[in-house]
Amino acid sequence: MRERAQRLFNTVEFLEANGLDTSDLQPTEADRKVTRAVFSDSPAANPKDVNTPARALMLKALLDEYDFDVIRNAQQLRSYIKLKLLELSTSNQEKTQLKALDMLGKLSDVGAFVERIEVNVTHRTTEELENELARKLTAYMSDIIDVDSKDIPDKYDPLPTAPAVEVIDLDAELGDVVLDDEGVDD
Fold first, then answer.
1. 25, 54, 131, 170: which has the fewest Cβ within 10 Å?
2. pLDDT of residue 126
């Protein structure tokens, strides 16, 4: 709804820039009724009924006021929570005091217990990275040998050329496995 209201308001601004006088646009009672229904997201309301400059301006005013109220209420709630935590921090019970102080310290305004993670990024060239990698590999292996790549056919089977590999028939060696209907060996 907010996007549609913004488009409607942009249209009114465009009309104003091209000569529409909005100072004499007074919403009628029907305009107010339709706009309030759309604003409150009533099932009977149709957002397409906000089709006049007066209705668009009224919807924009309602949305702006709602945003202001939400911000004001959120600020009031934050202030209330801070005051209540301050009050609890002077409690007679140490457990309550400690918890209130802990929560006060975690508030974004205070930031006493904020965990910070530092990330340092060092930019290095490819050559520097290759040299460092070669140095580290040398520490783990005695010699590094550069090799040339070799094309391998798509259907390459390394098994016949592998030394000391004997191909065996598992069924002949272990016997046939017979499974029942539930997939369990009898």
1. 170
2. 93
